[in-house]
Amino acid sequence: MAKLIMITGPQAVGKMTVGQELEKISNFKLFHNHMTIDLVNNFFSYSTKEGREMVKMLRRDMLEFFAKSSIDGIIFTYVVNYNEEDLKNVETYKKMFKDNNGEFYYVELNAPLDVRIKRNKSDNRILYKPAKRDIKFNTNISAKETAKIIKEKFNI
């Protein structure tokens, strides 16, 4: 009965960093969105149709595998643009876990644009997201505190 915590929000809002902190205080593993993007970029640019389709396939297959596994849970970061395709993907991922007696939790982070612009160049972002190397944290609360809130809210 695996759980999926989907952390969403715009670019550079702190999804991966909050996920890293949540991973430290739970038995969940982090699957951040750039793990698939950076893998696929070795073969196809994510800006191409082939690149986007391969990323989508990898995410779908991995999340389905996780949903059927014996792991406690997965923390998945995802930029949701609230278009038809993204909303369909969220529902697909949610259904994968629900169909396997798992649970689904949705967290949306937010930060002002000026904060996100600064974060876009942070050492942590550049270290874990090679595609972002050509370019810290939540304005009011740290990633560590945000992770604690998520852990308590969802009782994980």
**Domains (count):** 1
H/E topology pattern: EHEHHEHEHHH
Question: How many beta strands in the DSSP annotation?
Answer: 4
Question: How would you characterize the largest beta sheet?
Answer: 4 strands, parallel
In CATH, the architecture is 3-Layer(aba) Sandwich
What fraction of residues sit in β-strands? 5-15%
Task: Explain what the structure shows.
With 156 residues, the chain is α/β, with parallel strands linked by helices. The chain has a single domain, classed as Rossmann fold (3-Layer(aba) Sandwich). The protein is 49% helix and 13% strand. Helix 1 crosses helix 7 and helix 3 packs parallel to helix 4. The model has no long low-confidence stretch (mean pLDDT 89).
Helices, strands, pairings?
Layout: E1 3-8, H1 15-24, E2 29-31, H2 34-40, H3 49-68, E3 73-78, H4 84-98, E4 103-108, H5 113-119, H6 123-128, H7 143-153
Parallel strand pairs: 1-3, 1-4, 2-3
Helix pairs in contact: 1-7, 2-3, 3-4
Characteristics of this structure?
globular; 156 residues; 4-stranded parallel sheet; 13% strand; Rossmann fold; alpha/beta
What would you say about this model in short?
With 156 residues, the protein is of the alpha/beta class. The chain has seven helices and four strands, in the order E-H-E-H-H-E-H-E-H-H-H.
